[in-house]
Each structure stands twice: as structure tokens, then as C-alpha cells.
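Write out this protein's structure.
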Amino acid sequence: MSELLIIWCMLLAQLMLGVAMACTLYRIIFGPRAQDRVLALDALYVSAMLMLLTFGIRTANTIYFEAALVIAVLGFVSTIAFAKFMMRGEVIE
């Protein structure tokens, strides 16, 4: 019973993450300002990372965890670069 419950909960979590990713894609496309688009991109990479983690838990494959770690690091760096670009107009000083 508990294994079946975990499988259904993981499936539900993946469906909710898919809906969250669709909402952030809508905000990236139709965002009124550039700041909204950057925040939506930040939320999109977090959702993608969590989606990979749920795939890794369901399949018990470690490659998904490594890919999620790479996405987390690159997403953090890109968010900092976007914020710096929007604040000063250039990334490298």
C-alpha cells in the first residue's frame, strides 16, 4: 500500500510541476516587463530541476540527480548574470 501511495504521489507531483512549468512559460512569453521574464526563467529552472529529481526518484537512476545539480548551478549563475545585466547594462566590467 505504501509503495503504491508513493508512486501516485510522485506522479501527482510531476503533474503539478508540469503545470507550474507551463505557467512560467506563459509568463516568459507574455510578461509585461523584463524583470517578470527573468523571475519566470528563475522559477522555470527550479521547476525543471525538481522535475528531474522526481524522475530520478521514480526510476532510481542517479544520472537525473547529477543533471539536476548541473541545472541548479547554471540556473543560479544565469540569474545573477541577468540581474547584473538589468541593473548596469553589462555583465562583465
